[in-house]
């Protein structure tokens, strides 16, 4: 009975370790993907900031109005993205959904300003 219990515990420990490894890999892959997206979007934002300096009239006024909100959204997204490193399997779905929603809102704001 003791051997069966020990064998069952060892098997359970292996399954738990495999599940943790799978989660860590999925989290790292997602984080890398979103970081790449953010890097590309940062370039678009830099282009918009250059456009602010060279635009005139209504275009400049619209960019001057939108850029502070875009920068704030980007900063909030970047901070939340860093918080993914501490997400646990039990909080993962909620955190990922929040990050995905923030990403879509940020992307939409930048696209509207472009």
Kindly describe this structure:
The termini are far apart. 89% of the residues lie in helices and 0% in strands. It is rod-shaped and about 85 Å long. 4% of the residues are buried. α1 packs antiparallel against α2, α1 packs parallel to α3 and α2 (57-83) runs antiparallel to α3. The chain contains 3 helices and no strands. The model has no long low-confidence stretch (mean pLDDT 93). It has helices spanning 2-54, 57-83, 92-113. With 114 residues, the protein is mainly alpha-helical.
List the helices and strands and how they pair.
Layout: H1 2-54, H2 57-83, H3 92-113
- Written as H for each helix and E for each strand, in order along the chain, the element string is HHH
Strand content: under 5%
> Mind telling me the C-alpha Rg?
22 Å
Estimated structural class: mainly alpha
Give a quick account of the main beta sheet: strands, pairing sense, barrel closure.
none
Count of beta strands: 0
Query: How much helicity do the residues have?
Result: over 70%
**End-to-end CA span:** 69 Å
Summarize model confidence as the mean pLDDT: 93
User: What general form does the structure show?
Assistant: rod-shaped
- Number of continuous helical runs: 3
Oligomer: single chain
Low-confidence stretches: none
